[in-house]
Write a sequence for this structure.
């Protein structure tokens, strides 16, 4: 009960029955609520006199009254468990003093020895102490909520916890706490949050705990009783148009109304996770809208699962969009190739890691590849490699591919963004997950969040499983450069609008900032082209042009003829295959029927390079079946040789048995 309600109840008792205007009646009604302690004190004297007339001089009565006095005091202490410690102690002392005086008066008489003085002084003090307590409670001086607070904390397992200066803000209550030394720790507070949410009748996501980093028993509990994120916030436009990627991206709002920002350079690599319908794609669009308005960042998008369906209006603004598995494989190989090239450029120009100055023309002698002054070399842009629905690529290429990229790309100015519905140990190894230091976790099922969010964030109250797909766009962001106290705070990404409005906003971003977005630098472009070839050089046409017309359906004979025609060299195209061959001279030496082991290995290398260059950057043992006769070896020999190439580092195994990825060294051979 609040102090205001207590005061009103007290006032009602004062005014009840006061129907006369006489001063005496008014005074009586004002004094009436304070009379019970005095009436009990007077009744105690009468009870002592009556008991003395019955049991004066009886030793058995003395024993019985003493035991009764002790039992009544103990019962009072036990009954006061649900009250505050002050009321409990006050009641027990009053009962002990009163029952003790009654026992002495019953045996010796109420007027014997010091009993009259003790009665007058002790009874007056006891009655007045209760009157004072009553007055303080009525005036609100005594915290009427303290008893209930203590009872609440005891119910949730936090008994004897001290609550300090409570800060009340609009839709936010911050309660600093101090746990009893040696009895409870901050971990106990985290474990009690679900029970505390139940006691307060709020959702579990409305509570979070912020531990004091300098203490194991101090911190504060934050209560946000009303969900202010129910109504989505429409994308307000770019946060820092035309500025560097070093300025964080504004992608939504926290539940206290502050901006949800993603510091790209601090975050480095990001894992984005959320089940279907959780708003993960909407959050990705918010990030893309911001990236495509900055002056020193280039975006590569891989989306083999949906062929860029969700990003279609933004594709013309991206430097490279790989929308099928072969193109995605080529992009991954290109990323592996550009990392050492970019790292070497940064090293030669005196950069320990990418920074905004690296994207500008190098006019500073401190960042020159020459010893005689500024080199004026063109800069290199920051590169975002976005892998949408990355689970498909992980299955196709093997998750070890991304482990190496994530571990090596940081200093090269390359950021890896892996977006997937459900991350688990079956898809990402511990090494790969550790290489993705930042995470955006939307609604998930069960305990899936444990793979995206650190344990301490979950202990602090983060619970994306409570949203599932019922709170679209709700997200937790964990990243370097973000206040750790915000890790467990729910946020919601911006809404880019319904169908039609989103396309308009995307077209505006593509057109308005076309002159702001940089062209890909020559260092990155050269390394990517050397590995990906046509998959890279034709990227701009595929991103901006309409989808190609469907190819005509060919019969099996036509397909076979077309395949044979592709194998004919241009210089032999004019030959008549049906013409009679010239007679062979008797003394012409025929080639050996079977190549030597060295020749077979060289032929295998050439075939592997050729097949990988026209495909997704991968080659399988089964792809070499048509060439077994030419090699002069069987399938088992080819399989062993490809394993040997993998052991030598010239091929890299993928997640599929017998499928290998071409490494740059072999491609250049």
């Amino acid at each position: 009960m609040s102090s205001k309600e207590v005061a009103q109840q007290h006032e009602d008792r004062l005014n009840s029955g006061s129907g006369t205007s006489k001063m005496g009646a008014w005074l009586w009604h004002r004094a009436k609520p304070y009379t019970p302690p005095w009436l009990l004190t007077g009744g105690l004297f009468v009870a002592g006199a009556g008991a003395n007339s019955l049991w004066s001089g009886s030793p058995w009565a003395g024993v019985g009254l003493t035991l009764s006095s002790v039992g009544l005091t103990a019962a009072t202490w036990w009954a006061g468990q649900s009250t505050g410690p002050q009321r409990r102690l006050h009641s027990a002392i009053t009962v002990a003093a009163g029952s003790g005086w009654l026992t002495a008066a019953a045996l010796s008489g109420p007027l014997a020895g010091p009993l009259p003085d003790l009665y007058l002084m002790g009874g007056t003090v006891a009655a007045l102490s209760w009157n004072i307590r009553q007055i303080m409670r009525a005036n609100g001086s005594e915290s009427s909520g303290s008893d209930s607070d203590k009872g609440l904390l005891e119910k949730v397992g936090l008994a004897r916890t001290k609550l300090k200066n409570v800060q009340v803000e609009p839709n936010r209550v911050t309660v600093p706490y101090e746990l009893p030394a040696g009895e409870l720790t901050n971990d106990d507070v985290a474990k009690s949050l679900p029970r505390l949410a139940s006691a307060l009748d709020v959702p579990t996501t409305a509570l979070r705990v912020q531990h004091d980093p300098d203490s194991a028993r101090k911190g504060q509990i934050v209560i946000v009783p009303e969900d202010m994120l129910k109504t989505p916030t429409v994308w307000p436009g770019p946060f820092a148009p035309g500025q560097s990627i070093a300025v964080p991206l504004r992608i939504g709002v926290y539940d206290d109304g502050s901006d949800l920002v993603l510091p790209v350079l601090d975050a480095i690599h990001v894992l984005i996770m959320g089940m279907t319908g959780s708003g993960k794609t909407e959050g990705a669009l918010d990030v893309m809208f911001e990236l495509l308005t900055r002056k020193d960042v280039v975006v590569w998008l891989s989306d083999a699962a949906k062929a860029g369906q969700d990003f279609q209006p933004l594709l013309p603004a991206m430097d490279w969009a790989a929308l099928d598995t072969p193109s995605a494989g080529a992009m991954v190989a290109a990323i592996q190739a550009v990392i050492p090239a970019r790292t070497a450029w940064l090293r030669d120009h005196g950069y320990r890691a990418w920074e905004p100055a690296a994207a500008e023309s190098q006019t500073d002698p401190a960042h020159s590849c020459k010893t005689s002054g500024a080199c004026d070399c063109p800069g290199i842009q920051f590169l975002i490699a976005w892998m949408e629905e990355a689970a498909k690529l992980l299955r196709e290429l093997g998750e070890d591919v991304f482990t190496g990229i994530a571990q090596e790309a940081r200093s090269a100015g390359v950021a890896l963004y892996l977006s997937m519905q459900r991350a688990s140990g079956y898809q990402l190894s511990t090494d790969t997950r550790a290489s993705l230091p930042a995470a955006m976790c939307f609604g998930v099922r069960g305990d899936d969040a444990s793979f995206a969010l650190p344990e301490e964030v979950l202990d602090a109250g983060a619970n994306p499983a409570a949203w599932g797909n019922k709170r679209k766009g709700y997200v937790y962001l964990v990243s370097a450069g973000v206040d750790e106290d915000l890790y467990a705070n729910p946020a919601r990404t911006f809404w880019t609008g319904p169908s039609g409005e989103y396309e308009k906003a995307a077209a505006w971003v593509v057109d308005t900032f076309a002159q702001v977005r940089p062209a890909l630098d020559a260092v990155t472009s050269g390394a990517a082209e050397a590995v990906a070839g046509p998959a890279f050089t034709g990227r701009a046409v595929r991103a901006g042009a309409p989808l190609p017309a469907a190819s005509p359906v060919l019969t099996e004979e036509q397909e076979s003829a077309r395949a044979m025609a592709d194998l004919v060299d241009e210089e032999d195209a004019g030959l008549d295959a049906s013409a009679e061959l010239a007679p062979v001279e008797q003394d012409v030496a025929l080639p050996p029927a079977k190549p030597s082991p060295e020749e077979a290995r060289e032929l295998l290398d050439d075939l592997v390079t050729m097949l990988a260059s026209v495909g997704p950057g991968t080659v399988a043992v089964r792809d070499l079946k048509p060439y077994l006769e030419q090699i002069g070896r069987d399938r088992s020999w080819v399989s062993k040789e490809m394993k040997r190439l993998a052991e030598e580092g010239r091929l890299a195994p993928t997640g599929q048995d017998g499928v290998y990825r071409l490494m740059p060294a072999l491609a250049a051979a």
In short: Residues 35-138 form one domain. The longest strand covers residues 172-178. Confidence is low (pLDDT under 50) at residues 141-146, 544-559, 665-669.
